[in-house]
Amino acid sequence: MSLGFVREFLRSPASVGAIWPSSPALARMMVRASGVPTASRVLELGPGSGAFTGEILNSLGSGSRFISIEKSPELARTVAAKFPAARVIEGCATRLSVHLEEEAFGRPDAILSGLPWAAFDDGLQAAILDQILASLDDRAVFSTFAYFGPHWLKAGRAFRKRLEASFRDVRRTEVVLANIPPAFVYYCRR
Ligand SMILES: C[S@@+](CC[C@H](N)C(=O)[O-])C[C@H]1O[C@@H](n2cnc3c(N)ncnc32)[C@H](O)[C@@H]1O
Is 14 in the pocket of ligand 1 (CB under 6 A)? Predict the structure, then answer.
């Protein structure tokens, strides 16, 4: 458990959006749903304290590239120190195209999001999804998790509709009970 994560939540609740990092079981589900082992350019948005990062690195094929973009300077430093094999950028998902260009990364074929969509207003959700859609490779997978329960509420349903308006194919995994709170993964293709 990362104290840095809790500290960042207390400092910036609307940006961190969760008090507790995701579990290894949810990390495995994200990685599987995103097809990380066969992807050649993998991007993570909002690693927090690195709940998904280690699982991504463990599953990454040889010769594949990986970058992770985190807005909080403290958390970006934490993840970089914890996972020296990861290229961690302190940056913002709203500037995704700029970060990808600066890294000469090309188009990701898997984007895994740990971003707290429920804490974002409509404008910010739309701005970040536009950046994601503009950067994805044609056969790419975009994945993101949602807490089971709140997905029935108005904001949760609106987010699903937004995904369906943006992607040709939107699917979800079974619920991962070994997560606090239980969660599932949306995985989407253009
Ligand atoms: C709910 S935490 C998730 C952390 C981790 N992926 C997990 O599941 O435990 C959300 C993370 O997204 C980061 N974040 C929020 N807005 C962001 C943005 N616009 N660009 C990049 N990272 C952002 C926060 O700083 C925080 O670390």
Answer: no
The strands making up 183-189's β-sheet, listed across from edge to edge, are 87-90, 65-70, 41-45, 110-113, 141-147, 183-189, 169-172
Both tokens of 135, joined, read 């950067």
The Å distance, Cα 138 to ligand 1 centre, comes to 25
Is pTM beyond 0.70? Reply is yes
Kindly report, residue by residue over 123-181, the tens digit of the pLDDT.
Answer: 999 999 999 999 998 889 999 999 998 888 888 899 999 999 999 999 999 999 999 99
60-79 pLDDT per residue, tens? 999 999 999 999 999 999 99
